[in-house]
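Structure in, sequence out. Go:
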């Protein structure tokens, strides 16, 4: 590696030397300041030659000769001396051209890492995939999940987690694309429609746009009790000037949320914000970082411990543990859910499918 950079430095200095040598020869040769002067002089000669050979009439010769002469005089008046560096400045210019690549090479050898081995992307990706999710930052987690989605193109869960990681990486556009892929595979999942609506809101800097409102409406079609969709649709009505109607929808949502639901304080604060002043609420969806994905799953588990009557939540919890590769917690959650819904074959089937999800 050191030999390579030394060779590059020598080649750069050689190229700079050749350029300066040719420039010095051109400056020493002098020449006209304006290259158009010889052109007009040659044009005058050609006009006279054509006239002598009888190829143009006399009046045409006089007209063309006058025009060419006028352009020649204008070019001569506008011409100035050819640019060239002062003789006293030339040694400094040459020195700078030689010193610049040498100095750059010296700085790299001094503070760089010329002996550091290459880091192929595939090797880094393998290390990230082998590491626990909580040890990865958001872009690394997103890279891992992109590889998982390519391996499991028919599973919506990796796309859902990828959307979370992309959002935490500050790329809501990529999160939106991941959620659309997840919805292509599971169009009846209300939680994915809610997440898509929130991603579209982030892209629009927190505004409830017609596109995000349409996604929230689809979520309500799949689940009329979808709390996130209800919250943001009501917020959109408040921002549009329908304050009383929006507040009424928020009050209905608050009445439907369980007492232990952590979203209740957020909703109450938003209601108070609207009631106490004319400004509109500006509550953006909470962003979950990639290292916190496991904590997000634990939050779901804690909510189910307090409010266990949520079959969809149990299915999501079992699937999340399976995707994270936590077999022990997956089996424990599966056993609890099976005991609770032993008389519901449809939920038992969904739980079995969730438990069979491949780990990332």
């Amino acid at each position: 590696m050191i030999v390579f950079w030394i060779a590059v430095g020598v080649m750069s200095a050689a190229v700079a030397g050749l350029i300066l040598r040719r420039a010095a020869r051109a400056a020493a040769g002098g020449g006209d300041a304006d290259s158009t002067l010889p052109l007009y002089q040659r044009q005058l000669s050609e006009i006279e030659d054509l006239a002598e050979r009888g190829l143009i009439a006399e009046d045409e010769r006089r007209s063309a000769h006058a025009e060419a002469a006028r352009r020649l005089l204008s070019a001569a008046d506008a011409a100035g001396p050819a640019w060239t560096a002062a003789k006293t400045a030339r040694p400094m210019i040459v020195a700078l051209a030689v010193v610049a690549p040498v100095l750059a090479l010296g700085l790299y050898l001094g503070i760089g890492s010329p002996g550091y081995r290459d880091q192929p992307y595939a090797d880094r990706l393998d290390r990230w995939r082998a590491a626990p999710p909580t040890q990865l930052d958001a872009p690394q987690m997103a890279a891992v999940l992109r590889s998982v989605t390519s391996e499991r193109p028919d599973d919506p869960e990796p796309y859902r987690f990828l959307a979370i990681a992309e959002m935490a990486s500050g790329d809501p556009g990529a999160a939106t694309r991941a959620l659309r892929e997840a919805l292509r595979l599971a169009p009846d999942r209300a939680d994915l429609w809610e997440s898509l609506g929130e991603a579209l809101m982030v892209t629009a800097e927190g505004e409830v746009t017609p596109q995000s409102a349409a996604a929230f409406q689809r979520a309500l079609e799949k689940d009329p009790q979808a709390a996130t969709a209800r919250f943001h649709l009501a917020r959109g009505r408040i921002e549009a000037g329908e304050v009383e109607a929006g507040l009424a929808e928020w009050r209905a949502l608050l009445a439907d949320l369980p007492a232990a639901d952590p979203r209740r304080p957020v909703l109450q604060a938003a209601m108070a914000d609207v009631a106490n002043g004319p400004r509109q609420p500006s509550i953006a969806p909470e962003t979950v970082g990639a290292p916190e994905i496991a904590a997000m799953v634990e939050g779901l588990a804690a909510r189910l411990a307090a409010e266990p009557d949520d079959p969809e939540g149990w299915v999501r919890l079992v699937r999340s543990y399976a995707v994270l590769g936590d077999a022990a917690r997956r089996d424990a959650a599966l056993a609890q859910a099976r005991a609770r819904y032993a008389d519901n074959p449809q939920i038992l089937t969904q739980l079995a499918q969730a438990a069979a999800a491949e780990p990332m």
